[in-house]
Amino acid sequence: MLLSLPLVLSLAQNPWDEWDPDVVRELNTANKVNYLNDEEKEVILVMNMARHDGPLFVRTLLANYVEEKQVENSSYLRSLRKDLNNVEGLIPLQPEKDLTAAAQGHAIESGKSGRVGHQDFNKRFDPLMGNPYTHVGENCSYGYETAMDIVISLLIDEGVKDHGHRKNILMVDFNSVGVAIRPHKTYRINCVMDYGQRKRSQ
Description:
Blueprint (H helix, E strand, L loop, with lengths): L20 H7 L10 H15 L1 H16 L5 H10 L9 E2 L1 H17 L7 H5 L7 E10 L4 H10 L7 H6 L6 E9 L3 E11 L4
Parallel strand pairs: 1-3
Antiparallel strand pairs: 2-4, 3-4
Helix pairs in contact: 2-3, 2-7
């Protein structure tokens, strides 16, 4: 059944208008990075917006997306709203070259082979563990090419019982990320997001 609840936001409104431009600039941590394309940078921005103010994200970007895409009001969408309404002030994810390289390698290899999943995860991340990362995680998206589609579909996490993709995006400990969007043999396009808790100098 399609969503039939009253919506807070009309498509005539711009969902970005309620966001403080200065806050958005602070959350756009990849803005000046030269090793990511514009869509990859926006993936990081949208994740950071969800991490920074979950309730505002629900009222604006998520509400607009649900209306525009006619997303079914499933238990996964309802649980996402509930989870985001309890999220506020998580540290913004910072782009990192090493995580980006890991994401690029996996996105390219998955794209060429047409595979899905997290093949050789431990092998790929073992060199980064301990120094500089205490733990890492990975999300993979297939068939979506815009940042909003990629991030919100993973936040909804339809059909994933443990909401693992959502948990990675909203993980309190993660402070670093690498993103790669590449062609995919089977699904046309894939996006890999690699996360880490990086030791920061005090």
